[in-house]
Design a protein that fits this description.
By secondary structure, this protein is mainly β. It is built from no helices and 29 strands. The chain binds calcium ion (2 copies).
């Protein structure tokens, strides 16, 4: 958005790679349901800070309509300028290193407008631009049916470097504009279709700025170096609608799998019985008896496995293992509960592989009943 250069650099573009398995967890959003959230900071002033824009940015030009943020560009004299609009950011309130940043946006596509959904590095306040880095998630100018995804950074020789690609779309319809950013790549998407990719592994090409936190910006300029200075006043006011802004980061998706003990795939030496907590439990578990269950673990990792158990006298030991006996995942003791239908929950942490598999409880020492087991992360 700032000091935009029209020529893309010659950085390598690698498209068409299969998306890797990801579990994005929502870490922040503004749905604009009734109000503009408190994390947005409004910028006030004219000229667009280096772009020769024709508007004066005012908070008053950002409103809510029907669950949308609306940034309105107006033909309006204010502060020595002849147009007003709004520019807002999360600088100083919210920033993220890596993630999926997405917004559902509908644009006016009016001659002279230049809407942007973008990010700047927090370090802009110390090292300045372009050393801070800039990621433009979506930009569009004038009436064009094209949107751009770009990055700007500081080359080793101190000059501004940039890299950009574009895709044709229908900007006056709603689309979801997103980047997915990790330590290796920034990837740009429209409605889930990737159209640009930029490699930042190990700060290659002096891109280390993109290994630091960035904040979000939304704005709509009127005129400027990129769209030019021909404004269709008759088409104003022009509105940029933002249904939501969401930030996701990679994390472990919540897992909670409960298995009724009696729903075994195989067993040796045990029987079911009516359970005081409802349904059935598995009893008559003696030393070296075993029970196998089918389970699908979505991702390899450390899980808490809990067992609902009852034991008149205690002394039992549950060993969790892969069906067949190897590897052993761990073991947990079963305390005395004072009755065969007096239930308690014991648990332990184990590391499980991903995928459809058979897990087994082997009784290293018997003398307990199991109602269910639960696998959570
Ligand atoms: Ca909304
Ligand atoms: Ca049960």
């Amino acid at each position: 958005m700032k000091f935009r250069h029209l020529l893309a650099s010659a950085a390598a573009l690698i498209l068409g790679q299969a998306a890797q398995a990801q579990s994005w967890q929502l870490v922040w959003s503004d749905e604009f349901n009734g109000s503009i959230g408190p994390d947005w900071v409004f910028e006030t002033g004219g000229g667009g800070w280096g772009n020769n824009e024709l508007e004066y940015y005012r908070k008053e030009n950002a409103t809510i309509e029907n669950g949308n943020l609306v940034i309105t560009a107006k033909r309006e004299d204010y502060g020595g300028y002849h147009y007003t609009s709004a520019r807002m950011k999360t600088q100083g309130t919210r920033s993220w290193k890596y993630g999926r940043m997405e917004a559902r946006i509908k644009l006016p596509a009016v001659q002279g407008t230049w809407p942007g959904w973008w990010m700047l590095g927090n370090s802009i306040s110390s090292v300045g631009w372009p050393a801070s880095g800039e990621t433009d998630i979506m930009e569009q100018i004038n009436t064009a049916g094209t949107v751009y995804g770009s990055v700007h950074w500081q080359a080793a020789n101190g000059s501004q470097a940039d890299y950009s690609n574009s895709i044709g779309t229908t900007p006056t319809d709603y689309h979801v504009y997103a980047v997915e950013w990790d330590q290796d790549y920034i990837k740009w998407f429209v409605d889930g279709t990737q159209y640009n990719q930029f490699q930042i592994t190990n700060g290659a090409g002096n891109t280390q700025a993109f290994q630091n936190p960035f904040f979000l910006l939304l704005n709509m300029a009127v005129g400027g170096n990129w769209p030019g200075f021909t404004i269709n006043d008759a088409a104003l006011p022009a509105k940029m609608y933002v249904d939501y802004v969401r930030v996701y980061q990679k994390g472990a998706a919540p897992v909670s799998i409960q298995i009724e003990a009696e729903n075994w795939a195989a067993m040796s030496g045990v029987q079911t019985e009516a359970c005081s907590e409802g349904g059935l439990d598995v009893g008559w578990i003696d030393t070296n008896d075993w029970i196998v269950w089918n389970v699908n673990i979505p991702v390899a990792g450390t899980y808490t496995v809990s067992y609902r158990v009852a034991s008149l006298n205690g002394g039992g030991v549950i060993q969790l293992e892969k069906a067949g006996g190897s590897p052993v995942y761990g073991s947990v003791s079963v305390p005395r509960t004072g009755g065969w239908q007096t239930w308690t929950t014991v648990s332990h942490q184990v590391t499980l592989p991903a995928g459809q598999q058979q897990i087994a409880v082997k009784a290293l020492a018997g003398g307990y009943n199991i109602n269910w087991l639960k696998i959570t992360n």
